[in-house]
Amino acid sequence: MKRLSLVMVFCFLAGLFTTPLFAADNFELSIPLPLTGGQAKFGEMEKKSYEIAAEEINAAGGIKGKKVVLSFEDSQGKPEISRAIAEKLIDVKKQPLIVGDYSSSSSKAIAAVAEERKTPYLVVTGAADDITQQNYKYVFRLNPSTAYYSSGLMSFMNEVVKPKTIAILYESSDFGTSGAKDMETQAAKVGMKVLVSEKYEKGAVDFKPILSKVKAAQPDVIYMVSYVMDASLLMKQIKELRIDTKLFAGGAAGFAIPEFIDNAKDAAEYVVTSSLWCTMATYPGAKEYGEKYKKLYGDFPSYHGAEAYSALYIVKDVLTRAKSWTPEDIRTAMKATDMMTAFGPIKFEDRDGYQNQNFMDTLVLQVINGEHHCIWPEKYASKKYMYPIPKWRDRK
Length: 396
Hints:
By secondary structure, the protein is an alpha/beta fold. It contains 13 helices and 15 strands. It has helices at 2-16, 40-59, 79-91, 104-116, 146-149, 151-161, 174-189, 208-217, 228-240, 258-264, 286-297, 303-321, 327-335, and strands spanning 26-33, 67-74, 98-99, 121-123, 139-141, 165-171, 193-200, 221-225, 247-250, 272-275, 338-341, 344-351, 354-358, 363-368, 371-376. β6 (165-171), α7 and β7 form a beta-alpha-beta unit.
């Protein structure tokens, strides 16, 4: 009798845990992001974009009938915290894949943990080249690496500006260093002489010493690889020093988000920047996502938001195709990905020294009348580029 009672209790409990009231009917995904600290602007944009995607996916039936339930872990933009979060998600929460974080340094930290524990990791915005140059099997990146960020900008400069000299200013992070190195390589290929190449510590408050060197060198182009506060301050101090040049150009990141214009004010006008995406792109769903984000939050998102939004759709596609939701089957499905997203085409390839890397065209934005507009390539342009740009003394 006692044995029968135990069996009945077990069956009752087993039934409880398979009802829709329990997490078995949810797909729970925790995402590391910098929600406090200097990179929080990007983290918040990505968080909002993940949430928009999750709401859409759930409205369409979820993933294999399971509701997507998101939560977020604050990495503060610190690699050691990102690593600890990844370890917790894999070892404690038994999450079968990792998605997210923002910076290259945090992405590197997570990538090392994911590869060590054989858990698929989808890099969303970390751009340093070497993230996908480690012969990792479990690390996949949807965004182009830094070496490809400037391809659209180089095309614009070669065809429109035709500069002979350049000054490069960059922050002392993985992103800044790799971005500067790539621009030096690209400049050498087209015979553009690098007159100044200066590294600075991010968060600096006085760029005037290095900007004085730039002013004395008189380059045709000033190219900067910076996050948003440094990008804004650089342009403000360039204006104060009245440094004139043919083109002020940013290497994406801080130059490509609305806060750059908000902070730099009129000093941002006519600045161009590399970008991986814009709301005017012809990718299916790009315009709709951008307009939905603006309606909810007041500004159009930058490419960082589009990457996060599209990342969740990649997860949906991968989990739908995977034989099971084990890390190994998810990795196999991730490797076979070939799809179109609002961010653009996604296909993870092994070439040019990269593994599991997505390759795609990059765009150029320019600040015109206080707003970012896509100006290059011309087939994607929402507005004609403004060139030549006026000298500071001729601006209103």
